[in-house]
Amino acid sequence: MTIALTDFGVPEVPPGIYPPQQDSQLLIDAMSQAGLASGARVADLCTGSGVVAIAAAGAGAAEVSAFDICPRAVRHARNTALADGVSVQVHRGSWARAVEFGPFDLVVANPPYVPQAPADDSASIPATAGPPQAWNAGADGRMVLDPLCAAAPLLLDEGGTLLVVQSECSNVKKTLSALRGHGMRVEVVAQQFVPFGPVMSARSQWLTGAGLLPPGRREERLVVIRADAP
Ligand SMILES: C[S@@+](CC[C@H](N)C(=O)[O-])C[C@H]1O[C@@H](n2cnc3c(N)ncnc32)[C@H](O)[C@@H]1O
Q: Which of 110, 79, 80 is nearest to 95 (CA)?
């Protein structure tokens, strides 16, 4: 079953919240294709508008816990879940709080993963792209990905699954090897080349210079990584 973003009341989001886009849809599609949400205890770690959490609830999850540091996003996700008639517990705070509520059968995450140029480029990025905390992830793009990989064994129950989406610019191999290092079975289950949006357009020259993006590119490769706990 394919779940489209338009199946939920979330594509239109108020200012200051990450508008669901290709990475959101890629993650929802991977979750849907994996067929793991039904009956599962699910955590959505960086929920934003709540689109992925709500999709999990709509797919029949037994319970869904969602986390975000942005109060505006938390309010919006709560209201949208209510309006859609699904049950999602939306917690305000770091994704790391999920450890208190776990372990989970399925953990999904679309974290910030865009490497951050040393110079502040926020003035060149339109507000419609969402808030900087939705994408800025330190010089290597791994500010959330690294601790998330480290916490995966604590978040997942025996046989549980993590689905995480990231860009090629934030070192896919490092995620694969960190998760493999926990004895998890790991693979890339989905990928998509997407044209640069405003953030990537503003940073493409710096990303290329930093060796994080091949020269001449106008699109980035997004991947969904699946990790199954032993
Ligand atoms: C790329 S957006 C993803 C939103 C939504 N899950 C989606 O797929 O459309 C990342 C979200 O992570 C949130 N965020 C950033 N750092 C976080 C942290 N340390 N803990 C929890 N949420 C965080 C941002 O506020 C933003 O809403």
A: 110
